[in-house]
Design brief:
Elements (H helix, E strand, L loop, with lengths): L1 H12 L7 E8 L4 H5 L8 E3 L2 E6 L2 E9 L7 E2 L6 H4 L5 E11 L3 H7 L5 H5 L6 H9 L10 H9 L6 H15 L2 E2 L8 E2 L4 H6 L2 H5 L7 H12 L5 H4 L4 H8 L7 H12 L9 H11 L7 H11 L4 H14 L1 H4 L1
Antiparallel strand pairs: 1-6, 2-3, 3-4, 4-5, 4-6, 7-8
This protein binds a DNA duplex (13 and 12 nucleotides) through helix 8, helix 14 and helix 15.
DNA sequence: TACCAGGAGAGCG
DNA sequence: CGCTCTCATGGT
């Protein structure tokens, strides 16, 4: 453990920029880092003994929570501590480490959305039984703000795949086509998510070798359209929700659900409400028991019932349905 | 073994 | 429209 610290100190000492370091800290409250990184919105994080390791953009990152304890120093949260602490009810900090020293951490604060007033968001949720149960069960669950291309490509690969499998496909894609990124001494090699240009240049059989099956031609064609500017991902951010969704749906392999995932997880459109099989099950069971409701009708319901932060409500329902066996049926 | 997985898109009546 | 089928692969 101390050897890890000294490695980072050495790396920091070699930096020419004064004040730059390989570590920073974000004070947070109600932030369940584990649930957030493992709730099916991103597929790049691996749980290690000392936190979570992943790649954001072209940077290797390690994250872990430390909780504030009354009357004592901050205590590292092990994964075996009390459920209350693990759910992030306590105030604490997110400790972040990178492989190279930095003096500007805004990119990470933005990714983690540490500035969000979660209580304010939760207060806008409808005051009904299902929502109360989901919030109580998933306190501290957050939405990240991811890179649009990585998010889009990942969800093109997600259709009818289990989350563990999506992670594996994305990992293979990055290993084979992504640029290697700097990692601390002794850490496993890590790779950036491949650019649209690189994916478009890959052969379909090379992509299929990453176990993505029939999704390969869709990913490749979408990469080409994004790479050559036929669909401009940077423009989507400034569009009204419906137009932004329609723009994304011009891409092959992107329907309503995947478009909404990208709108919510990458662009932060709060009205986007992706309805997948889990959310559909949860909605039917919790809000329309013993009634046959079509997907279209369910979508109309989600547009009016969950308020201005419907997307957040969706993530709570999704995680609640997935984690709690009662809803699995 | 059979069924299902953070779906999309074509083909059908 | 609204429904059904297929697509590729692996987990449970």
């Amino acid at each position: 453990m101390s050897s890890i610290k000294s490695r980072f100190l050495n790396a920091a000492a070699s930096d020419e920029a004064a004040g730059a370091g390989c570590r920073t800290v974000f004070p947070v409250r109600d932030y369940d880092l584990g649930a957030t990184l493992n709730s099916g919105q991103t597929f790049r994080w691996q749980r290690r003994e000392d936190g979570w390791e992943g790649v954001i953009g072209s940077r290797w990152v390690r994250l872990r929570m430390e909780a504030d304890r009354p009357g004592s120093r901050r205590e590292r949260i092990s994964f075996q501590t009390s459920a209350a602490a693990a759910r992030g009810r306590n105030a604490g900090v997110i400790v972040a480490e990178t492989a190279q020293p930095l003096n500007d951490w805004r990119w990470l604060a933005d990714y983690l959305q540490v500035g969000l007033d979660l209580g304010g968001v939760l207060a806008t949720f409808p005051d009904d039984g299902p929502m109360r149960a989901a919030v109580a069960a998933c306190r501290g669950l957050r939405l990240l703000r991811q890179d649009p291309w990585e998010c889009l490509a990942s969800f093109i690969l997600s259709s009818t795949k289990q989350i563990v499998q999506i992670r594996r496909i994305v990992a293979l894609l990055c290993e084979r086509f992504g640029d290697p990124v700097m990692v601390p001494n002794g850490c496993e090699a890590a790779f950036a998510f491949p650019t649209p240009e690189r994916v478009a240049a890959a052969g379909e059989s090379e992509l299929r070798a990453c176990k993505m099956g029939f999704r390969a031609p869709n990913l490749r064609a979408a990469a080409r359209k994004v790479g050559d500017g036929e669909v401009d991902l940077s423009r989507v951010a400034g569009l009204p929700t419906a137009a932004a969704r329609a723009e994304l749906m011009r891409l092959p392999g992107v329907g309503r659900k995947i478009a909404d995932c990208v709108l919510l997880f990458a662009y932060g459109f709060q009205a986007a409400f992706p309805v997948d099989v889990w959310v559909m099950k949860a909605l039917r069971r919790l809000y329309f028991p013993r009634r046959r409701v079509a997907l279209k009708r369910l979508q109309q319901f989600t547009e009016t019932h969950f308020g201005p932060h419907a997307g957040h409500a969706q993530q709570y329902l999704f995680h609640y349905a997935r984690v709690h066996a009662k809803l699995k049926e």
